[in-house]
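User: Can you help me understand a structure? I only have the sequence.
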Amino acid sequence: MTALHKLRDAGVAALMYGPPGTGKTSVIEAAFGDLITIQGDGDTTVADIVGEYTQTPDGKFVFVPGPLPRAMREGRTLFIDDATLIPPTVLAVVYPAMDGRHQIIIKANGGETVDAAPGFYVVAGHNPGVHGAVLSDALASRFSVQIQVSTDYDLAVQLKIDTKAVAVARNLATRQAGGEIRWAPQLRELLAFQKVADVLGVDAAAGNLIGTAPEEDRDIVATAVRTAFGKAVAPLALGAQI
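Assistant: Let's start by predicting it. Here is the structure, written out as tokens:
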């Protein structure tokens, strides 16, 4: 977090990337208490970023600023989560605020000009390999620092997550790095494991972990679970219904 604060002070935009569930969002939320977030997806529009006109109860239409102009005016951190899922032509509306101009023009509001106040900063998240996520050259060039985020399995142990579950995750992460499988449990899945274990027991949590895995990796995950827990565990399923 100290590094992120230094980058903000220097005005160097940062892109955090890594598999879903590694804690990218949590790190950014912990680092910046003044965060304004855009949750990106394929349906995100320019209006979602800069704002749009909204009808008031008395029938009038007023322009409601979006997260980008709000962050700029207030000198706050703008977090673009899943930035690479946003269509490039839409995300381009942010670029003038990030470069030397530090300014945007809101065409939808009569060409209003918004200047970035001191403290304005942009940080983004990217999940490589997720369907539809495209890190374009234009986007990559705006983020001078790109930081890989991976699951800290030592942290998982410190968080009192079952050590056998952590062992499964480490095993699968090694296989994933070697190209044997595509999926390995991240911190999000390990936290979910512990929650399920606390409610339904360890066997149910282990079964849920297997069921969480993509179908093509499930047999390997089941083998890793059997090795760590010393017995075969089946994915969670409903029995016969009467």
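Now, to help you interpret it: The chain has two domains: 2-148, 153-229. The longest helix spans residues 163-177. Let me know which part you'd like to focus on.
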